[in-house]
Every structure is written in structure tokens, then in C-alpha cells.
Amino acid sequence: MDRKKITIVGAGNIGATLALLLARRETADITLIDINEGVAKGKALDIMEASPILGFNAHVVGTGNYEDTAGSDVVVITAGFPRKPGMSRDDLLFKNYEVVKSVSEQIKKYSPEAFVIVVTNPLDAMTYTALKVTGFPKERVIGMAGVLDSARFAYFISEKTGISVENIKAFVIGGHGDDMVPLPEYTTVSGIPVRKFLSEEELSEVIERTRFGGGEIVQLLKTGSAFYAPAASILEMVLAILWNKRKILSASVYLDGEIGKYYGATGLCVGVPIVLGKEGVEDIIKLELTDEEWKAWRRSVDSVRNLVEKLPL
Ligand code: APR
């Protein structure tokens, strides 16, 4: 049986880290493509030279030519510019719009059946861009942010409670910006509500740190943004699709009609709980929110709408 084919567009920090993680799982053969062809080729070769030691048989190839990406089952878009200190994700809007638009045109041409996972920031606006430019069904174009934000929330809770990360199930919805919406009501420590472990003050601290989790890393790195946890988050989404896990996780998806009305975000891509499996977005889970959470959700949706309205789509 042939292995599946995954293309990663952008062989930068996130793209290359993801290629190594995927190769080690032998899930698929991987094509790394970058505007800087040498970087894609060099990193692919470097990963393959690790294969005898780490013991994986998957193939990773680097290229600058979209013909080599043809017939991919999944395409991950990490191409673009990362944040520098002092920049918000939204400052990247127009530069990364051009990148995601041109990449999406190539995906449409060479991999018309692919699932597309968008990672480039500002995430929700770039997911919307990929959806519109490819014209793919909304079930197949998914933005990666909620898994990462929820992982950060879970890690900070683990740190505060001293309980294993394996026991923490945390949930964050909304846009992937500073006004994202962490949901303590839907966050548990081994099934026990998180409020049994943390005071309101401790919880507020953890929520605040989660909202600015990406910025904290940018401040420390100075020359780029986070990549290990983002790559791990993409891996989780790719495996959910390829192995038909039907996993509930938070991701940025297009909201329309009935669901859109419920969330008050019709016509946008925003982070909500979805069921992810072999058909892509197989369901969207409706949550009950408190008044305060609704307020936060609306603020977050408004920020996403403001950005999307600036795009020439
Ligand atoms: N086509 C293909 N590759 C491109 C293009 C393009 N049009 N434009 C830029 N790239 C490549 C760059 O050459 C670089 O190798 O995208 C890569 C981006 O890598 P990094 O700068 O290391 O950025 P990374 O940390 O991987 O983040 C990528 O994800 O989290 C978001 O905000 C982040 O938008 C950024 C993206």
C-alpha cells in the first residue's frame, strides 16, 4: 500500500519541525516546498540523513516546484512571515495575504482533493483566504490555532496545579488573537472541573498567560515565533484526519447558516469545537456559554471580522 502524501508549504521553523515529527510517525511521504528552494532541499536531506538513526522509512523531499506536490492528500500552509517583537499577529495581514493567496492557487491546481490546514497568521483571516481562493468545500479547509492555544492553557494549568499534563483537558475557542476565549467551564483535570484545583485568581493568571502565550515566546526568541508546539498541534490534526480519529478539538472553520447564527459569526472562519476525521470537519459542537464568555466570544469575532473586511476577497 502506498503511503499518503503530505505537502508542507514553507520549510521554515514550523514546516521543518512538522516534517520531522510526521516522518518519525511514518504516516506519509512528505514534500517540503519553499520559495527558497535550497532551504527546502537542504532540510529535507538533513531529515532523511537522520532516518537510519531514528529508524523511519517515510521519505521527505524538498522542492521549489509545485508540480512535485501534485496529488497531495493533505497540504499544510506555513509559508509566510512570522512576528517580530512588538508586532501583533494582525500586523502580518497584507504581507501574508499575498503569500497565502498564491499558495492556495497552486494547491487548487495541483492537489484539488486535498485537506488544507492553514497555520500562517493572522490565522482566522488566512484560513478564510485559503477557503475562498481554493474554492474547496468548507469541511476541507481548517485553521490550526485552537489545538495550540488549548495546549498552552493545559500546560499552564499543569504547572500551577502540579498535576500531569496527561490529565488536563483544556479548551480555548474564538479567534487566534489576544482576545481568544479560554473556557474554564470546559476544562478538567482528569474529568474533575479545573475550579476544584485553582482559585479564581490563579485561573485568571493562567487565562491571561494563555492569551499572550504566543507573544511570550516572541519576546524571548526575538527573531521569530513559536514552532515546537505549533508543529505538534498540526501533527495532531493531520493524524486525526488520516487515521479517521473523529477527535474533538478546537479549530478555525467556516461558520455559516444554522451554526453561524448560533455563534453569531456567519461568514467567517473562527475557532470552535469540531469533530475531525476522514471527511475533515465532520461536525461542529454547540457549547453553552456564560454571559461573560459570550461577551468575550463576540469581542473575538469582531476582531476577526475587522481583519477579514480589509481583505480584497
Ligand atoms: N511560498 C513558499 N514559501 C514561502 C513563501 C511563498 N510565497 N513566502 C515565504 N515562504 C517561506 C519562507 O522562505 C520561510 O522558509 O515560509 C517560511 C516561513 O518560515 P519561518 O520564517 O521560519 O516562519 P515559521 O515560524 O515557520 O512560521 C510560519 O506560521 O505561526 C505562523 O506567524 C507564523 O505566519 C507565520 C507562519
UniProtKB/TrEMBL annotation:
E.C. numbers: 1.1.1.37
InterPro entries: L-lactate/malate_DH, Lactate/malate_DH_C, Lactate/malate_DH_N, Lactate_DH/Glyco_Ohase_4_C, Malate_DH_type3, NAD(P)-bd_dom_sf
Bilayer-crossing regions: none
Molecular functions per Gene Ontology: L-lactate dehydrogenase (NAD+) activity; L-malate dehydrogenase (NAD+) activity
Top-level EC class as recorded in UniProt: oxidoreductase
Gene Ontology BP annotations: lactate metabolic process; tricarboxylic acid cycle
Domain Lactate/malate dehydrogenase N-terminal as annotated: residue spans: 5-143
Residues the record lists as binding substrate: 83, 89, 121, 152
UniProt keyword tRNA processing present: no
Protein family per UniProt: Belongs to the LDH/MDH superfamily. MDH type 3 family.
Protein name as annotated: Malate dehydrogenase
Organism, as annotated: Balnearium lithotrophicum
